[in-house]
Design brief:
Distance between the termini: 21 Å
Strand order of the largest sheet: 12-11-8-13-16-17-19-20
Helix content: 25-40%
Bound molecules: cytidine-5'-monophosphate
Number of strands: 21
CATH architecture of the largest domain: 3-Layer(aba) Sandwich
CATH topology of the largest domain: Rossmann fold
């Protein structure tokens, strides 16, 4: 059994740490709780002890514990340390290497993987001091999950919310590479592609990358090693995932081919079907009274079809998406046959799913079409990851 040390610091989001502890135990981890003085103002040691089923730590100066070098044991006796929620203050102390309470001392004394889930006011998160501290910690190998965008406790909206407990559990499993997909390599494409017209202009599309990024996170959450090849998006890198950033379809194809072999490939990117036939080396000038230029297009490579026909390098399972506005399932079936992939997730984009939080999909496979209820994209991703784990077992 993998043992987690859960450090809870002072944030109103501390209550979510209880839910995380519950989920982690249900997923087979043992959890030891450690409350900072700030954390203990938001949740009680009793609540954390009841949910973790073990004694909660908090005092560096406990004679009883330190007789057995308690802080060193806490630092070493767990497979990973999860700091959730991590306040701006605790992150600053970690970056500075301070050790003035039990949490910071343990964090300085550990050689175990550490995952930090920040939660704070958006202005505090955006502050250059916090950002510099986060950068310092990242460089030292500390992993981060979140924060997320959304409504805060105070009437404010922005980046600073603690990640939701299921996503935090995914990040822990990704960091430890435990789960049914441990030892497997998953390749995921996500986001739009940008096809250059000239050095400043491009043809693109409205794909947000949310679905592809969520799939990468969910696969990593089941223990897979994940390579995410992403077009330009405004999303944070999913924790524990190797991200390769590309712009054009041709770059995306090259990055995917370089990432092979893989056990599974999920093509969730909205790849441009066409690109400008020529990319001019200099910016096209607007000339007064001249007619507007015409752009002629050339066809882009089809990444899904290329991966499906990669011969001995073909992933065992190749999965594509089909964004349609009518006859969704019929088109998906035809696309599955034409591209040679195993499964197609058909989604009705007339239902306003592009860029949205939710998705309505139908899984089309050899076995037929299976309609999934309308779900959050993160839930679609988790269902798909579970199905992939089943198929690769
Ligand atoms: O043909 P269509 O664009 O509808 O197919 C959608 C599926 O094919 C998606 O899985 C998408 O990621 C993939 N695709 C691709 N390369 C292209 C076009 C689409 O991988 N050039």
């Amino acid at each position: 059994m993998q043992r987690l040390l859960l450090i809870v610091s002072g944030s109103v989001a501390a209550y979510k740490a209880l839910e995380f502890a519950r989920l982690a135990r249900r997923a087979g981890f043992s959890v030891t709780g450690l409350l900072t003085a700030g954390g203990a103002r938001f949740i009680t040691p009793l609540a954390l002890a009841a949910i973790t089923g073990s004694r909660v730590h908090g005092d560096l100066w406990s004679v009883e514990e330190e007789a057995q070098a308690g802080h060193i044991r806490l630092a070493r006796d767990h497979e990973a340390i999860v700091v959730a929620p991590a306040s701006a203050d605790l992150i600053a102390k970690m970056a500075a290497g301070l050790a003035d309470d039990l949490a910071t001392t343990v964090l300085l004394a550990t050689n175990r993987p550490v995952l930090v889930a920040p939660a704070m006011n958006p202005t505090m998160w955006a502050h250059p001091a916090t950002q510099a501290n986060v950068e310092t910690l990242r460089r030292r190998g500390v992993a981060f999950a979140g924060p997320e965008e959304g409504e805060m406790a105070e009437p404010e909206i922005g980046l600073g919310r603690l990640v939701e407990p299921p996503a935090l559990l995914e990040a822990v499993r990704a960091m430890l590479a435990v789960g049914p997909l441990a030892g497997r390599h998953a390749l995921v494409t996500s986001g739009p592609t940008f096809e250059a017209i000239d050095p400043v202009r491009f043809l693109g599309n409205r794909s947000s990358g949310r679905q592809g990024h969520a799939i990468a996170a969910a696969l990593a959450g089941l223990g897979a090693r994940v390579t995410l090849v992403s077009g330009p998006v405004c999303l944070p890198d999913p924790p524990g995932v190797r991200v390769i950033r590309v712009e054009s379809a041709r770059e995306m194809l090259a990055a995917c081919e370089a990432a092979l072999p893989a056990d599974v490939a999920v093509c969730a990117a909205a790849v441009a079907d066409w690109r400008p036939a020529t990319e001019t080396a200099t910016k096209i000038k607007k000339v007064a009274a001249a007619p507007p230029p015409t752009i002629s297009l050339a066809e882009n490579p089809d990444i899904l079809a290329a991966l499906s026909s990669a011969g001995s390098r073909r992933p065992r399972l190749v999965i594509g998406f089909a964004a349609e506005t009518e006859n969704v399932v019929a088109h998906a079936k035809e696309k599955r046959a034409r591209k040679g992939c195993d499964w197609i997730l058909a989604n009705d984009v007339s239902a306003g799913v592009f860029g949205a939080e939710e998705n309505a999909v139908t899984l089309v496979s050899e076995a037929g079409a299976e309609v999934w209820p309308r779900l959050a994209k993160t839930e679609v991703a988790r269902r798909l990851a579970a199905r992939i784990a089943e198929a690769l077992r």
